[in-house]
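ok so heres the complex, three chains, lmk if somethin looks off
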Amino acid sequence: MQLESTSSKEFSKEAVRHFLVFKQGFLQKKGKNGAYDALRQLECIQIDPISVVHPNHHLVLHNRVVDYKPSHLEELLYKDRVAFEYWCNEKSIIPIEDFPKFRYRMKNPSQFHSPFYERIKAQSKELHKEIKYVLSEIKKHGPLSSGEFEQKRKIEGKLATKVLNLLWDCGDLVIHHVEGNRRYFDLTERVLPSNMNEEVASREEYEQFIIHKYMKAYGLVDIRDWRFSWLPLKIPQRKAMIKRMIEADKLCPIKIEDIKHTYYVLKENLSLLENSDTAINESILFIAPLDNLLWNRKMISDLFDFDYAWEVYKVPEKRIYGYYVMPILYGTNFIGRIDPKLDRQNRKMIIHSLLLEEKCFGENLVDELVAALQRFLSFHEASKIEINKTSPKKLKRALMRELS
DNA sequence: GCCAGTCTGTAAAGAGTCCC
DNA sequence: GGGACTCTTTACAGACTGGC
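and the predicted structre for the whole thing:
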């Protein structure tokens, strides 16, 4: 199937990088309202529980909102209820106005992903009694976590987790609040306004909505992406969908210098891509491992000539850059990697390594790195810093001179 | 041989539980 | 009281399998 049209526009890598970085809105917002605006601009933020430093979702907002605090997001989720948690780019935080659209997926969970759901769906008949019991207990007592079912009620903890997740997948329960990493679930009808819970989109409406949302969030559309369109589509179905969108004048194929692979961009974003004068943040940023900018690792490699792999899931002997390694962004380039860990007891930020790419180091970078580290420390309420390894070696002394 | 899809290993913090 | 242990949460990366 030939998808490239003769009218494909050609762009430099730098122009496309500028477009992608601009769309992320780095350090463009302020305060709790700014955090909400950033969430809407990003479409969703991926959740991750690993807390070596602040977890992924907080790091993502820290890089968009100049004075961001984790309490901003907690309030947006559990007090103001202008955001909710559900499957989007994996488990994600999503603006609440999208909730009615997600109802289609909630009511038809077997049509979508989640191997976890598939595993327990097979047991759903057997779980019928437990489902009824969990719902009635929550109705009676208010928000409950899996732990409470194990401790005080007659249901084993792992089974309670399965049932709670199943009911959450299906939209019968929402996350009321979180204590540590324990989620408390409540009835959706009790937490959200009735209009949110009544409207159910059709399959067609949901698909159109989620495809558009995906394309806006990614900026560049890549048919190889394993999360393509956040729908379970095989390659031929993806090609057919792209063809339809090109014919409907909603999507444009683009050619990028030195890249054979064809990427696509929403027609509505084309003028933004063509306009490389848009102002972007020029400070150094430590990008979260699951930041929206990094969702498509192949695209990052193509456009930024930077191969990034998060190493938390690698066996220790195969790690090259460190367990929680984060890319360092400077303007429209990745200039290196940082592997941090917060020592919470001593309020000390330990930088296991800070490695700059070859050719990236210049004396003027030191000031920018110091500013970025100071902001990172302040965000984590760390009063001390320890830097173990840098590349180049002389960077460590230069940084410590400014930071201590 | 290549590509798509599936399965498994891996690790962290925080809260709760158990036992001395 | 406090140390040791268990449970909970998550999905990427790489190994593996199967189809063409």
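quick notes: Chain A has three domains: 1-113+197-279, 120-191, 306-403. thats all i got rn
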